Every structure is written in structure tokens, then in C-alpha cells.
Amino acid sequence: MKTLKLGFSPCPNDTFIFHAMTHSLVDTEGLSFETHITDVEELNRSALEGFADVTKLSFHAWLKLKEKYELLRSGAALGFGCGPLLVSKTGTVNHNSCIAVPGELTTAALLLKIYIPGVSNLVYTRFDNIMPGVASGEFDAGVIIHEGRFVYSGYGLSQVVDLGEWWEKKTGMPIPLGCIAIKKSLGEELKISVEKIIRESVQYAFLHPDDSHNFIRQHAAEMNDDVIRQHIKLYVNNYSVDLGNEGLEAVRVLETLASEKGII
Predict the structure, then answer these.
(1) Which of 146, 208, 213, 219 is catalytic?
(2) At the top level of CATH, which class does the domain 2-79+176-260 belong to?
(3) What is the pLDDT, as a whole number, of residue 258?
(4) Does residue 172 contact residue 246 with C-beta atoms inside 8 Å?
(5) What percentage of residues in the chain have a pLDDT greater than 70?
(6) CA–CA separation, 25 vs 186, rounded Å?
(7) What is the number of alpha carbons within 13 Å of residue 218 lying toward its C-beta?
(8) Which residue, among 149, 152, 164, 143, has the nearest Cα to 230 in the 3D structure?
């Protein structure tokens, strides 16, 4: 049995997606997976060193790693109404504002740089440090991801802009946030197998949503069940089963805009 190093985040959308295939609930076609569960920016960074065979990546990171990792059509976080939010206590920012961002290689960072060309006063920190940091005055503003959109008002923060909504108006396309990629060196046959396994794992999760509850809670203990459900509903959808032509086109548009701004 061949074992692949698999990296994904502790966020509910990822644990929901990967539960079945890492718990032998779908056919893994003779493959086993050594799981590494950590923050998406840590996954982005470790991919620079080629750590995992199959890994969750921000689309921003994948665009920088295309020579090493190939995009899989299944497992992605992409859609409408699910983009990062720029927030502050006052509901405003300017070019001098100190803005906290959840990692240099995150799609959130890329979108902010496209939205505010030349923005430079950025502090890269873990996503869960951002809302408390803005609330305390450590940062003037912050770009929040994941469950942050559901709870930021509880920190006394106001939305400056919904970067996902801005993207949708600008492009008319779903916003590509995170993807699953596989080392190109593993070959086409293995890529096809892993893609199929992930697709079936997502489909199993949709059909048996309660099966992954304990696994999700184990890695997202700070969230209540209602927030977890909202999180999964927002980030796991038909694009997670297969990116399709529309999803692939959205990624191409993101790369084009990033190239035009000199970011990629």
C-alpha cells in the first residue's frame, strides 16, 4: 500500500471534505494517507519545500507553485458570497493603515493587493489573531477569513469591504479561495486516483453529514455547532466536487489580474 502525505487545515470545510477518505469510508484504491492538519498558511509555506504529496493550498500559493504542484479538480473552496472581509473598528481604511493579513501566500492577501494597489503596511499573522488584534488597536484593520464573517461584529468591528462581493462584481465569477494540489512528480495515474478519492469523499460527506461531526469538532473546538454548519454550507459546494469549466476560468482570471498588478 502506497502512503501519501496529505495536508489540510483544521477548518470545518476541510475536515468535512477529508473525513471519509481518511477514515476508510470510501474506496482509497490501495492508497493510505498520513495526515498533517495545520493552518493553511503553514501548508502554503511547507509546500514551498515540497513537504506534502497532496495538500490544501491557497490559490495564491498554488499560482506560485505551479511548476511543482498540479491543481486537482476536487476538494476546492470556491464560490459566491464566501470571500474575505476587510474590517476595522471605524469601517474605514487608508493607504497608511496597518492591516493584518492571514499570511503572505493566502488568497486574502492577494485580493487585498489587487483591491488596494500599492498597499504596503501589512502585518502577516495567523487568522485567529486578527479580530482580537484589530479590536485591541494593535492593527488598524484586518482581512478576515473562515468563520470570521459570522462573528466579527462581536468584536466591535465593522466591514470596510467584502472582497468576495467586490470580486464577483468585477469578474462575474465565483471567487477561488483554496484548492487541493498534488506533486507533479507523482505522475498522472496517481493524480487521477487521488482526484477521484477526494471527489467521492466530498460526495460521501454530503450524503452522510453527521458522520464527520466528531472529527470536525475535534479540530474546531472553539466553534459552536451553528457556526460550523454555516461554515461548511458556505465553503463546500458543487465546486468542491469538481471545479468545472467555470471554476477553472475563475482561477485563470485570478492569475491574470495578479499578473497585471505584478503580484505573481
Answers:
(1) 146
(2) alpha beta
(3) 93
(4) no
(5) 99
(6) 24
(7) 11
(8) 149
Distance CA(257)–CA(248), nearest Å, equals 15
85-171 folds as: D-Maltodextrin-Binding Protein; domain 2 (3.40.190)
Q: Domain extents for the chain? A: 2-79+176-260, 85-171
> What does the DSSP assignment read for 146-196?
TTHHHHGGGGT-EEEEEHHHHHHHHHSS-EEEEEEEEEGGG-HHHHHHHHH
For residue range 117-156, list pLDDT tens digits in order. Answer: 888 899 999 888 999 999 999 999 999 987 778 889 999 9
pTM over 0.70: yes
Spell out the alpha helix ranges (H) of the chain: 12-22, 40-48, 59-64, 107-115, 127-136, 148-151, 163-171, 188-207, 213-219, 225-235, 238-241, 244-260
Confidence band (pLDDT; 50, 70, 90) for 227?
Answer: confident
Q: Phi first, then psi: what are they for 100, rounded to 5°?
A: -85, 135
Give the up-direction half-sphere exposure of residue 186: CA atoms within 13 A in the CB hemisphere. Answer: 24
The two domains 2-79+176-260 and 85-171 share their CATH topology (first three levels equal): yes
- Find where cell 466579527 sits: 152
Characterize the bridge pairing of strands 99-101 and 141-144. parallel
Look at strands 54-58 and 2-8 and give their pairing. parallel
Residue 146 is among the residues annotated as catalytic for this protein: yes
Asked whether 52 and 8 are in contact (CB, 8 A), the reply is no
